[in-house]
Amino acid sequence: MLAALSPLIAATAQWLTRAYPSDGGALDSALAETQARQAVTVAAWLRYPTAMDAALVAVAGPGGSGRLDWITGADDAEDPDPSDDAAGESAWRTWVDEVVASWAACLLSTPRLAGAAVAALGGCEHANGSPVEFRRLVTPDERDRRAAALLRHPDLLAPIAALHRAQLLDRLEPYSAPAA
């Protein structure tokens, strides 16, 4: 079941870290990637909570990064990534899930939602069998926040987060604490 979502999680986390890169060294990049992967994993598990959901998205495909690239301006890049193919589109981009990226952006930029999302995973099939920790997403320390300054910046993430925020709020409504 986890294997079915692995390409989607990896590609969507990669898209987020490329769109909102760390400006530090290797350790900061690794910390930012970890936070992106945790946010994307939580979002993917919420979006595709059952083995059947995961299998269906693996067969149908998640849709790709086209709209996300357009919103962030990445589709006009004059200097394409050297790992991209001759058409300027690499295979990993086809595995990016727009809804999962939007939900992950919401989780990264709104700590209250991150806590509610992790709480919502309590009955999730994906979390059964082994303890899963999302500490860097839910309670990042100062080093985590500094490493992922762009990745967690609410204003920068707003255009992506706004795409599917309403769906996430509906999904998390039973788990959300009232706003103070």
Give structural notes:
Helix 2 packs across helix 6 (111-120). The chain is built from 9 helices and no strands. It has helices at 2-19, 26-47, 51-60, 66-72, 98-109, 111-120, 135-138, 142-147, 154-172. The longest helix is centred in the N-terminal third of the chain and has 22 residues, at 26-47. It is mainly α and 180 residues long.
Q: TL;DR?
A:
With 180 residues, the chain is mainly alpha-helical. The chain contains 9 helices and no strands.
Note the run of SSEs as H and E.
Answer: HHHHHHHHH
The overall strand count is 0
Quaternary form: single chain
- Unreliable stretches: none
- The whole-angstrom Rg is 16 Å
What's the overall average pLDDT, rounded?
88
Which class of secondary structure composition applies to the elements? Answer: mainly alpha
β content, as a range?
under 5%
